[in-house]
């Protein structure tokens, strides 16, 4: 669509964002329309009333993710925030990795990458297996129905995060509650500020403890490496810990619950996975593509005029990436609305891309592989305990998921 057609849109014609109540289990007609008619389209953010662009096609999303002219900096005045961050929080909070640009981003990411190599992640497999087996033991002891979210989806990444950070499990539970509160679109300034400040104090205390009394854990190793390099201050390390907290909880927990439901809704695919657990890696790639739980959580702001398709995004304008639309783009994936665990999903953007691609993606995939193979091996008759239509999904958070998932067997 030409620039003129976009520029002539009146204020009343600009749709409010979020555009739709997205459900990853069904086709989203509005996304299909955008891909075909307006791959770069103006919206007005509900949380602030400000305008931004949304990007709907796979090729343009990839272009934004790899463009040096697209900044991730939350403090840029044009950044399209989707939660109500106050000026005080924006100006005082040390920004997480995903909200930084090079070279600041590069220094921090360099500390993290060695912690998520294939070798190090595979070394965690026995411990992850122990966590999963312990949770399923408790499920079987209780007998159905149980809430899969509380019994498996939340505890596994919580326990793993606590172990990685060298923190007590009860601390990780507190961190997760704070993280969930700050990811809700409707939270107000005062509540968000309170949650952010509480979380910051808790994380700062943990980092201080590891600086003074290091142990064999991820956070202690990052702190030790930083002492050698001397690149970061204490508050920078707190920001890294915060980023690990968000990444360690939401993606894995939401994918466990939503992935289980997806497999149960496709019994033929699930049957193939049960018969051949080696299909797990492909199945997980398809679940990540199909569900796209961080659909519109990623955003950028243009630092110079940038041509995206037929539209010029001006310097200072915000851009929101519709991962859910990109991962269902017919130009990138054949029959994209069909769930197929045999699909080649290379190129999906569930973990972002470019310099900001999720550094912990390999760990999340190993968690999911162990969870799904173990769950359906040990409870092969697992099924939903309520009709699918009654399941409570998270439509008010930046990261899609489930509040409850009642299952039985």
TrEMBL record:
Superkingdom of source: Bacteria
GO molecular function, one term: oxidoreductase activity
Cross-referenced SUPFAM superfamilies: Cytochrome P450
Pfam families reported for this sequence: p450
InterPro entries in alphabetical order: Cyt_P450 (IPR001128), Cyt_P450_B (IPR002397), Cyt_P450_CS (IPR017972), Cyt_P450_sf (IPR036396)
Record EC number: 1.14.-.-
Family: Belongs to the cytochrome P450 family.
Name of the molecule in the record: Cytochrome P450
Organism: Streptomyces andamanensis
């Amino acid at each position: 669509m030409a620039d003129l057609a976009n520029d002539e849109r009146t204020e009343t014609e600009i749709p409010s964002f979020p555009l739709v109540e997205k459900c990853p289990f069904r086709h989203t007609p509005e996304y299909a329309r955008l891909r075909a008619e307006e791959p770069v389209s103006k919206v007005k953010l509900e949380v602030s009333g400000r305008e931004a662009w949304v990007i709907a096609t796979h090729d343009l999303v990839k272009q934004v993710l790899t463009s040096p002219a697209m900044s991730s900096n939350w403090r840029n005045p044009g950044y399209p925030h989707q939660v109500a961050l106050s000026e005080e929080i924006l100006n005082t909070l040390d920004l997480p990795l995903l909200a930084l640009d090079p070279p600041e981003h590069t220094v921090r990411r360099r500390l993290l990458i060695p912690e998520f190599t294939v070798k190090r992640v595979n070394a965690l497999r026995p411990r992850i297996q122990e966590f999963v087996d312990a949770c399923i033991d408790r499920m079987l002891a209780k007998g159905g129905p149980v809430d899969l979210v509380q019994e498996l989806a939340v505890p596994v990444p919580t326990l793993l995060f606590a172990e990685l950070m060298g923190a007590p499990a009860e601390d990780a539970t507190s961190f997760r509650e704070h993280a969930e509160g700050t990811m809700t679109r409707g939270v107000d300034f005062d509540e968000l500020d309170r949650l952010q400040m509480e979380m910051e104090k808790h994380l700062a205390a943990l980092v201080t403890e590891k600086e003074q009394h290091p142990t064999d854990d991820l956070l202690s190793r990052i702190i030790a490496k930083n002492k050698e390099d001397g690149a970061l201050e204490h508050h920078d390390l707190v920001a890294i810990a915060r980023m690990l907290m968000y990444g360690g909880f939401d993606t894995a927990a939401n994918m466990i619950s939503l992935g289980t439901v997806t497999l149960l809704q496709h019994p033929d695919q699930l049957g193939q996975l049960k018969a051949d657990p080696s299909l797990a890696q492909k199945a997980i790639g398809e679940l990540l593509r199909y569900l796209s739980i961080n659909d519109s959580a990623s955003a950028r702001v243009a630092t110079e005029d940038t041509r995206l398709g037929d539209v010029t995004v001006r310097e200072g304008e915000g851009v929101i990436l519709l991962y859910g639309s990109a991962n269902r783009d017919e130009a990138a994936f054949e029959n994209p609305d069909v769930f197929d665990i045999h699909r080649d999903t290379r190129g999906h953007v569930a973990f972002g891309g470019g310099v900001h691609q999720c550094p912990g993606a390999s760990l999340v995939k190993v968690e999911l592989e162990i969870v799904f193979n173990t769950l359906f091996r040990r409870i092969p008759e697992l099924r939903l305990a309520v009709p699918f239509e009654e399941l409570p999904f998270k439509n008010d958070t930046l990261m899609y998921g489930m509040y409850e998932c009642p299952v039985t067997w």
